[in-house]
Design a protein that fits this description.
With 213 residues, the protein is mainly alpha-helical. It folds into three domains: 110 residues, no CATH class; 30 residues; 44 residues, no CATH class. The chain contains eight helices and no strands. Helix 2 runs antiparallel to helix 3 and helix 3 packs antiparallel against helix 4. The longest helix has 37 residues. The mean pLDDT is 90.
């Protein structure tokens, strides 16, 4: 037993020594990026899938749990693959040109996005829409910082909030099919289901009364 423990400690020391080697830093960063992508994807998707599944999806408990597991796995896998691809391409470009330039990041992410997130499915669609909203805000702030547009004299956020809510509710009321299914479900729950009730039970306690009731 003691020999086995000594071997493990020696292996651990060797692994730690390897991790301290600067010449392997780029390759090791790619591997850790894969790890962090997988973990972060699972942390983000699992609670979201849990809430959305139990709020809006029908089916047995087993079917719901399977759906949650599949969504969590897909998000975790895709994010891990993307980080791995992005950091690998970034390191390769830096190695080839001898330095890192801003275009490297854009090109590596474009290739990773095409390869990993190019499939039009619900998980990828949600991720892209999440990023798109952040990009719009980020580019707007960058345009002000660079002087391409003047600094607003008043906070433009109230106007943005008004336009976003006005547009999304107009789309929901008159062009619902253009919205993402999960957003349709949320808005149906908020704005349509609140129009229907039969008695106190489905007015305050339940959203909808079942046939048995």
């Amino acid at each position: 037993m003691a020999g086995g423990g000594d071997s493990f400690r020696a292996l651990l020391r060797a692994a730690n020594a390897l991790l301290q080697q600067r010449r392997y830093h780029a390759a090791l960063a790619v591997i850790k990026g894969f790890r962090n992508g997988a973990v972060y994807g699972a942390k983000i998707r699992a609670p979201h899938a849990l809430v959305m599944t139990f709020l809006f999806k029908s089916g047995s408990l087993r079917e719901k749990l399977k759906s949650i597991a599949q969504a969590t796995y897909a998000h975790s896998r895709n994010l891990a693959y993307f980080v791995f691809t992005y950091k690998g391409l970034l390191a390769a470009q830096s190695q080839l040109q001898g330095k890192k330039i801003p275009f490297h990041s854009f090109l590596a992410a474009c290739i990773g996005g095409w390869l990993v997130f190019g499939d039009n499915n619900p998980i990828n669609s949600q991720i892209i829409m999440y990023l798109l909203s952040r990009i719009v805000f980020g580019l707007s702030r960058l345009a002000v910082q660079k002087g391409y547009i003047p600094q607003p004299k008043q906070d433009p956020f109230p106007l943005v909030a008004a336009l976003v809510w006005g547009t999304v509710l107009w789309l929901f009321e008159y062009h619902r099919e253009t919205l993402q299914p999960s957003l349709q479900s949320s808005m149906t729950y908020l704005y349509e289901d609140s129009e229907v009730w039969h008695d106190l039970s489905d007015f305050l306690i339940y959203n909808k009364r079942t046939d048995s009731e």
